[in-house]
Amino acid sequence: MASALDTLNERIREVADLRHAADLLEWDERVYMPAGGATTHGEMQATLRRLAHEKFTGADVGDLLGRARDELGSADPDGRDARLLAVTARDYRKATQVPAAYVAEHAQVVSAAQHAWGDARQASDFAAFRPHLEKVIALKRQYVTFFPGGAHPYDALLDDYEPGMTTADVKAVFDVVRPRQIALLKVIAGRPQVDDALLRQPFPESGLLQFSVDVASAFGFDWTRGRQDKSTHPFATAIGCDDVRITTRFMDRYPFSLLFGTLHETGHALYEQGVARTHHRTQLEGGASLGVHESQSRLWENLVGRSRPFWEHFYPVLQARVPEQLRGVTVDRFYQAINKVEPSLIRVEADEATYNMHVMMRVELEIALVEGRLDVADLPAAWNRLMEEYLGVRPADDATGVLQDIHWSAGLLGYFATYTLGNLISAQLWERFAAAHPTCDADIRRGDFSALLSWLRTEVHQHGRMFEPQELVRRATGAPVDPAPYLRYLEQKFGEIYSL
After folding, report:
1. 28 C-beta neighbours (distance < 10 Å), count
2. Do strands 236-238 and 244-248 pair parallel, antiparallel, or not at all (unpaired)?
3. What is the CATH code of the structural domain delimited by 167-497?
4. What is the spatial distance between Cα 415 and Cα 207, in angstroms, rounded to a whole number?
5. Which strands form 244-248's sheet, in the order they lie side by side?
6. Which residues contact 350 (CB under 8 A, 6 or more apart)?
7. Residue 1 pLDDT greater than 70, yes or no
8. What percent of the chain has pLDDT above 90?
């Protein structure tokens, strides 16, 4: 007779299959779906998400969880079975507080909203997107009511992406990071500015695309278990560890966004491809949190991909791919150009020293929307005001302002804070890795990333969701999430570039 844990795992595998099918459908919506397919896709999404939710929240799952807990008894609480049971029980408790009808409605609303956002962004017309966003925000305010008793209504949204983290925790981190970054930006503003005109000339998309594939391959991306396509907004989707898909985009104004977008999404993909195969089709598959996930994308994109050792190896390769544009340009000049610090309108194009300001601004707006202090109709004006306050720039239109991110159309409120948390964790992991591997810069100068990927596989990737983010970071680095390594990294790197 099958044990309760085995029976529970079989049920969860069916839930995982439904979720994977919905994820694949969502990927198709954002990559290949014809414009007219939005309604049909929304209906399919609603059905799949509802079925997965109903199957996962059934009373028999609760019974199996109780029986499996009795079976395990005093087993090692950090063992795989105990952690699998604990994570599944936590997810079950949260899921049973959300009605299946809400899950179906949310899936349908965000499917339509993402389609409307794409059209509105192209037309730079917030008014066209507004009714869709109002529905999304109304649903998020309703979602918060399913989890009474929190210290702040935003806690329920944040916990979906960063388990164990509260709104107060995020504000405390921001309060440490903000003044140091503002001080750094003020000092940089007083120095001679880096000339990055060489990055603004026309570059062939094909050359940059092939170079990005060269680098993703060198990092260790397994193309037999992944692929890359183009989309309006770069993203990564994992249909389990053996089907991990990334996208990028080419922008005439920012041609190197194609490269750095690919490196960013490759970081996410390497994480998913490195999750232990035993976690596939269980509640342990995927990343520990979006902050930890973002630490992987930011580490590979910035700490590696914008580093001097990286370009000492790869710059000749890039020159061979785009010879006309980089003829006579030294690696030092190119390195400084790609690391120029300048407040800008677009978050995904922001430099490392200003990026967190974009994130903190969005979190402030989200909290105001959830609390009801800000109406959707007033969002563009609030956005423009905070852009001036935080970065000293003002959008000329909605496309470069309030419509630039896909997250709100996808219902991802509570998500943005994880970007800054990811920055902090990336530097914390890098410091620990560099201390354990003093030849890491020399390895990168040779184009050898095997030691870094192996260390990340061991310390982070393989565990999947076994441990909450603070515990995972503590196990890997010896301390919980700490802003200090990231602030040291920024001040040292840009102190050198700008001779501070």
Report:
1. 14
2. antiparallel
3. 1.10.1370.30
4. 33
5. 226-230, 244-248, 236-238
6. 344, 357, 358
7. no
8. 93
* Helix or strand holding residue 236 (H, E): strand 236-238
| pLDDT over 70, % of the chain | 100
Question: pLDDT tens across 36-59, in order?
Answer: 998 999 899 989 999 999 999 999
Q: How long is the chain?
A: 500
Nearest in space to 266 (alpha carbons), one of 214, 216, 208: 216
pLDDT of residue 251: 87
Kindly give, in sequence order, each residue whose CB lies less than 8 Å from that of residue 124, ignoring residues fewer than 6 positions away.
Answer: 397, 398, 399, 400, 403
Residues with catalytic roles: 265
Q: CATH 1.10.1370.30: which residues of the chain?
A: 167-497
| Cα atoms in the Cβ-side hemisphere of radius 13 Å centred on 175 | 6
In which element (H, E) is residue 348 found?
none
Beta carbons of 381 and 388 less than 8 angstroms apart: no
List C-alpha distances in Å: 127 to 108, 141, 378: 20, 21, 11
Helix (H, G, I), strand (E, B) or coil at 419: helix
Q: Which helix (H) or strand (E) holds 289?
A: none
Report, as an integer, the average pLDDT of 177-194: 94
Going by the DSSP 8-state scheme, the letter that residue 465 receives in this structure is T
Q: Is the dihedral of CA 100, 103, 106, 112 positive or negative?
A: negative
Question: What is the residue whose two structure tokens read 């389990």?
Answer: 240
Q: Does 110 score more than 90 pLDDT?
A: yes
Across 447-472, b (16+ Cβ under 10 Å) vs e yields bebeebbebbbebbbebbbbbbbbbb
